[in-house]
């Protein structure tokens, strides 16, 4: 059996829209999680290939799912994001289907469409899956190229693939490459992958289309996530953003995003500076309509709360990310009080920390 494990992630950290990504893992798993075998904040695939019997499954791939949102994940290999992406990798290498007979058991511990990088993790898991079952021996840097053809904002996939706190950028692609129909863009989900029925070999991604850098992270800083019980589709949360920004807003974000990685690497952390450096004018103001209470949280949760360093929307939301050193319960309660005053919802909260190393593969015979 092959196990593929990919962490969750929080993108942007306020001003670093489409740049910063923080791979996250649980500090402690609850008894319920241990009993159910679902690791919190982690996506796991258990993959077996049985050569003894011929597969009757479509594309030789049988999918089963457990964990968060399992009932909503499709079992069709050309539609499920993970296997679609794996098929993309296989077809770039001239293989039309999975090896017969491949079983993929998805154990999902990342809440779907909450701003914790479930689609980024699924894309990374898909590329790693394609690489493993195809035996292509791709490096992580080459796998990043595949991920970036699928999810065009690099923050979540770079964090999920490499782990830790990362910044990343993309090279501008030739429009011919981005327009290719067989690329299973997650932002146009749930459309099935196009161009797959031809049986033709799919063109490999250009080499080196993105770069990343891992920043240092001060271990005493933890990531408190408050996860409201509703979904925000990332594609919709990108549609509410303007196509152009004023010079003033661009400068506002540049000033903060340039300083934030340095501030988060220093011990003891400077709460006043971090709080200011996590402010943003590129996406959060436009996403307030999708996350009732967001503006009040951003205005009220200041470093006067003991232990709190700064607060922002996690990825495209609706999860709220608070960076803090202690006093987690009181900070979570203050955020939940605002969210539940704004609308009648339930929230869960958890304290996470950076997941070093990112996606990994365990091979057991
Ligand atoms: N484990 C998984 N298996 C298959 N598909 C998945 C899996 N996880 C996520 N997806 C797909 O990705 C979709 C969620 O993507 P979306 O970009 O809306 O949210 P997110 O990635 O959780 O949030 P954000 O990008 O803000 O962090 C799901 O509806 C599903 O189609
Ligand atoms: N940078 C992306 C992350 C989505 O997870 C966004 O905010 O739309």
Automatic annotation (TrEMBL):
Q: Which residues form the GHMP kinase N-terminal domain?
A: 80-164
Entry-linked PROSITE patterns: GHMP_KINASES_ATP
- Enzyme Commission number(s): 2.7.1.39
Per the record, what are the reactions this protein catalyses? Answer: L-homoserine + ATP = O-phospho-L-homoserine + ADP + H(+)
One Pfam family name is: GHMP_kinases_C
Q: In which pathway is this protein known to take part?
A: Amino-acid biosynthesis; L-threonine biosynthesis; L-threonine from L-aspartate: step 4/5
The UniProt record lists the GHMP kinase C-terminal domain at: 273-334
Q: Which domain of life is it from?
A: Eukaryota
Q: What class of enzyme is it?
A: transferase
Keyword set, alphabetical order: Amino-acid biosynthesis, ATP-binding, Kinase, Lipid biosynthesis, Lipid metabolism, Nucleotide-binding, Steroid biosynthesis, Steroid metabolism, Sterol biosynthesis, Sterol metabolism, Threonine biosynthesis, Transferase
| Family statement | Belongs to the GHMP kinase family. Homoserine kinase subfamily.
> Could you identify this protein by its name?
Homoserine kinase
Which organism's genome codes for this protein? Lepraria finkii
